[in-house]
Amino acid sequence: MQDWAQSFFLRTVLPDIPITVQLRNNAAMKHGLRRNSRLETWLQFFRYCAGRFPVKFVVICAWTEVDPRLRECPNVVVAKDSHTSLEQDLALIQSSALFMGGSSGPALMAVFSKLPYLIFNVHTSYESRLRGTQHVFATSQQKLVWEPETAELLIREFTTSMEQLDTSAWLDNCTDRLLNGSLETIQSPFTLR
Q1: Going from the N-terminus, what domains does the chain have, and what CATH number goes with each?
Q2: pTM of this prediction?
Q3: Integer Cα distance of 93 and 107 in angstroms
């Protein structure tokens, strides 16, 4: 799955750096409005980042959660446009340079790894730690941001993360895999051609 994810990045993201973003937009859940991503805020953030950072944001979510305005952002790739499965979405998280999103099931792929992450709008009713604290096993590049997203907060936290992120190591790893022939343009069996 990691080879598939790297191949996906090769086709849709490179030469930019892939940043996975899990956006939650589930109106059916009773507590969904409080836990949903603030889509207007994320759209402002994506627009701000366009041309300022050499990244592409790979948005993962359920097909029903895709907001068509995401496709208007030149620095955003909607994973579901390639008909990704949950397993593929998790592989995209695992293989990206940074994960961003809300506190959710898919975010755990980043939490229990060495992948840098920014997880916003953490709720204490779903967490067993004190508000404002971090996971005891988190690295300095893994951060729980307890406040709900605002454009200013997203920009500030992302800028700080980008200053600390070793993007050259991510690119070197991808280049090494290409040169060694272990990474080719692998088509997903789920992708419609």
Answers
A1: 2-179 (3.40.50.2000)
A2: 0.80
A3: 8
